[in-house]
Amino acid sequence: MKKLIAGGLLLAASALPLAAQAQAAKPTIVLVHGAFADSSSWNGVIPILQRDGYTVIAAPNALRSVRTDADEVRDLVKSIDGPVVLVGHSYGGSVISEAGEGAPNVKALVYVSAFAPEEGETALGLTGKFPGSTLAPALAPPVKLAGGGNDLYILQARFHDQFAADVPVAEARLMAAGQRPIADAALGEATTAPAWKHVPSWFIYGDKDKNIPPVAMQFMAGRANSRGTVVVKGASHVVMVSHAPAVASLIEKAATAQ
């Protein structure tokens, strides 16, 4: 075996690439935002993951249809060499549940204040199955779409209290102005084949979530046999904004799990 002298020490040349190989073996983290948000909602989480050596992609999510949104994420996953951890917030949980199905390089799913529907279930149905959501009265009058259906927004005056109560008011105002609408049809579209049935999953959510009832997320985590469930005391629906280190920590646990 060829050896190199470095600082007076003998090093095996074949050992030098191992660190690079270990780095390359780290999963790519794909983050999928939910309704009434955009990719900037992950801005607190991304630097932590990058600092710890992970490649991170905040995937686009059109918020039009579970199937078409999942197809876009699935195409992205297919383009990535090596293992992937899919992370979804809110409606993004429905998207990663669908996108992870049939994607052999997806090694884990992380649900961040998110839906994890069973086959045939919808986001609306799961929200209404349990008490606690106050989203409906916080919605603005729907924007009618030329092709049919409606776009839904949260009233900006209600956004802080409803969506991001544990985020500073000034930051919540920015989030409210930049929120991405979701097509009402997407919230009523049923999941077909959820990946959480055979892909390991992790869950994190706040106990003060006003969009998805915490009891609903507790139910979904239990049903999915969650490998780890973190309930953040006092956290709102945007736990990845208000408690980014906790969310990043759980993502890394999923990424390193065997």
From TrEMBL:
Q: Which residues cross the membrane?
A: none
> What keywords were assigned to this record?
Signal
Q: Which Gene3D superfamilies match?
A: alpha/beta hydrolase (3.40.50.1820)
Extract the Pfam families matched here: Abhydrolase_6 (PF12697)
Record's InterPro entries?
A: AB_hydrolase_1, AB_hydrolase_fold, Sec-Metab_Biosynth_Hydrolase
Which positions make up the signal peptide? 1-24
Q: Which residues form the AB hydrolase-1 domain?
A: 29-249
Top-rank taxon, per record: Bacteria
Q: Could you tell me which SUPFAM superfamilies the record lists for this protein?
A: alpha/beta-Hydrolases
Annotated PANTHER family:
AB HYDROLASE-1 DOMAIN-CONTAINING PROTEIN-RELATED, ESTERASE_LIPASE_THIOESTERASE DOMAIN-CONTAINING PROTEIN
Q: What is this protein called?
A: Pimeloyl-ACP methyl ester carboxylesterase
List the source organism: Sphingomonas kyeonggiensis
